[in-house]
Amino acid sequence: MFRLSNLIASVVEGKQARVLDGSIAIWNFTNRCNLSCMHCYSRADLDATDTLTTDTIMKTLPKLKANGVKFIIFSGGEPLTRKDLFDIAARCRELGIITYLSTNGLYVGQKNARKILDTFNYVGISIDGSEATHDRFRGLPGSFKMSMEAVRLLNSFHETKVGIRFTITKETLSDLKFIFELAEKEKIPKIYISHLVYSGRGLDNLAMDLTKEERREAVNYILDKAFEYYEKGTGIEIVTGNMEQDAILFLEKFGARYPEQKETMRRRLREWGGNSAGRKLLNIDAEGNVKPDPFFPETIGNILEQDFTDIWSKRPNALLQRLREHPRRVGGQCADCGVINICNGGSRSRAYAIYGDVWAEDPSCYLNETQRRGTEV
After folding, report:
1. 355-377 pLDDT, tens per residue?
2. Residue 76 burial class via C-beta count within 10 angstroms: exposed 0-12, middle 13-18, buried 19 and up
3. pTM of the model
4. Is the C-alpha dihedral spanning 58, 297, 279, 367 positive or negative?
5. DSSP annotation of 156
């Protein structure tokens, strides 16, 4: 997760960096969902049954806390299909774990909106572009209107806890500008923009990923909006995900605007450390499998069969140990890259999907040769 807006403000204003003192767990509590999204990494549908019981989840939460997990992102499927979701989140709060809810918004209404805001520290609702694009991408006519009703309802409480989530693909690229215009018009506090990772239906639909030229153009637009919002005091936060190489292009642009603070930003980016799968990020899926990230092709354990402490801390396997090296030993063009200490090699899941090798280069890296050398960054 690359927090553009926070980085700009903290460095320009000389504030302390927002450092993740601990790990983030993305937990797919269910594989049930009321939509059939083209890019879904878990291939969720309404026929799925929940494997993880409330008791199993409640017993695992203190173990996550004891092993440095500070944030849990409630994901799915559609997490609001679980009747015990609020009880699970309440237990997280008792343990001092910050909770984020990732939802399509279709189960958000007048009866539960206040409870959702009181329970979760942040709510991200998926919007994939204009109405036509969103409905086609999500596989349900009318889903855009329902999701936007949820955004407006939650945002009407003026608690700055709501954001929209957008995945860039060929199907949605033309709507990137629309997403920013929507946030401006609706005064939505946060935009999270994710790059496609090849897993689940995202793997089935590789043809919908961007070319490197398209990605570079899109990232340039996103970065320019982040600087614009900061300099105008718009108050909309921008975050990107699943493309740590964005940080190198960001550093270039930052240096052009604030040359006297470029080296401070470079240090911040090195401290941030790029791709954190297996280091400061983990995933627990709906079957109890523990993975370095939600898209990862291999599991490192299962909470139904092993103690989480053994999996994550006490007996980390060879894969996890190597993922925790920084910078990682990655092949291809990453092997002699001069900025790998910033991006950390990008996505290992994409590398595996294309090359069959977790340690190959990230095939979606769009940096040019000069940027990879790091001589002018």
Report:
1. 999 999 999 999 999 999 875 56
2. buried
3. 0.93
4. negative
5. T
